Amino acid sequence: MDLQLSPDAKCLSATSHMYVLDNDVPEDPGMFDVIQQYNSELSRLNRHGGLEALGLQIRPAPAGTGRFVGSESCRECHQIIYDNWKKSKHANAFATLVRRQRDNNPGCLECHVVGLASEDGFNGIAATPERVNVQCESCHGRASRHVQARRADKSKTTGQMPPVQSQSCTVCHDCIHSVKFDYSDYWKKLNHGQISR
Ligand code: HEC
Ligand code: HEC
Ligand code: HEC
Ligand code: HEC
Asked: Model confidence over 131-156: pLDDT tens digits?
């Protein structure tokens, strides 16, 4: 920001520009240390007191929706879709946070795990290592009823999963975290849904 001040420190004019601090901008050593300290403190809090020590409250799962069961439970019947998902960035979204030492930051976890701070979702890496990453149920919703019904009888249509809409993507692919998001482009990249099982 450029400010022009009068001798008695009144603002005469101001112009400002936005700069994105991408990888081409070197780290500021002083600020880098502050952030490192902040990350270590979050990690210490999480180790000792779990998500609650980070200021989150564990919520009950909404009534009438079933429970999260995890992508591993889908594999037995949807092997091809599972294999495609496993190779996708969604299946590695938590590692991305670990690499950046942001895996204890509630503001980042939200979109990089399943059901942050829901009792059947991610409750911390120690308690629920199987709820990391963007999984099937991040888009499809809780699937316990579907799994139960289809295990009982694969030909039945009970336990039908609701359709996924583009709003299901934009809760995470919002204009801050996914500037280039375009539903049809991104959907094609996933190579999913056009094939059965
Ligand atoms: C016991 C087998 C079985 C398991 C386990 C299973 N499914 Fe399915 N699923 C089916 C069958 C059978 C269909 C209907 C035929 C098809 O599309 O392949 C189906 C269809 C679907 C559909 C399309 C909509 C619908 O309800 O017909 C979605 C979405 C889906 N499954 C998601 C999942 C997810 C997510 C999981 C894991 C949490 C999962 N399924 C686990 C058997 C299963
Ligand atoms: C729960 C949050 C969440 C939802 C819902 C979600 N995504 Fe993502 N998506 C992510 C995250 C986080 C990443 C980045 C993962 C990484 O690289 O660590 C990502 C990455 C992707 C990528 C890879 C981008 C690339 O550059 O290769 C595609 C494609 C994508 N998402 C498509 C979709 C589509 C289409 C939907 C909806 C049908 C969707 N996503 C729903 C969180 C989500
Ligand atoms: C509102 C949901 C949301 C939140 C909150 C969020 N992310 Fe993401 N993140 C995404 C999505 C969606 C993508 C994929 C963007 C794309 O490819 O278009 C992504 C991608 C990334 C990537 C790029 C992965 C790659 O392949 O290069 C990094 C790094 C990342 N996020 C780190 C973070 C960190 C650190 C935080 C916390 C400061 C955070 N995210 C918070 C949704 C989110
Ligand atoms: C990024 C979001 C996203 C993720 C993650 C995701 N799906 Fe889907 N899935 C969709 C969308 C969108 C569709 C197509 C629209 C619909 O059927 O609702 C779909 C369609 C399906 C279908 C129906 C396919 C057909 O041919 O009719 C099945 C079955 C399915 N998904 C299972 C899974 C399983 C199993 C996983 C995890 C291994 C998974 N999905 C992960 C978004 C997702």
From this structure: 999 999 999 999 999 999 999 987 77
Which tens digit of pLDDT belongs to each residue from 85-104? 999 999 999 999 999 999 99
- Give pLDDT, residue 23: 86
Q: Please tell me the distance between residue 109's alpha carbon and the centre of ligand 3 in angstroms.
A: 9
Smallest-distance ligand from the CA of 73:
1
- Answer yes or no: is the C-beta of 161 below 6 A from any ligand 1 atom: yes
Tell me which CATH code domain 57-190 carries: 1.10.1130.10
The C-alpha atoms of residue 121 and residue 127 are separated, in whole angstroms, by 10
Distance 69 CA to ligand 4 centre (A): 15
**2-5 and 11-15 strand pairing:** antiparallel
* Cα–Cα distances in angstroms (integers) from residue 143 to residues 30, 96, 155, 164, in the given order: 47, 26, 17, 13
Show me where the domains of the chain are located.
Answer: 57-190
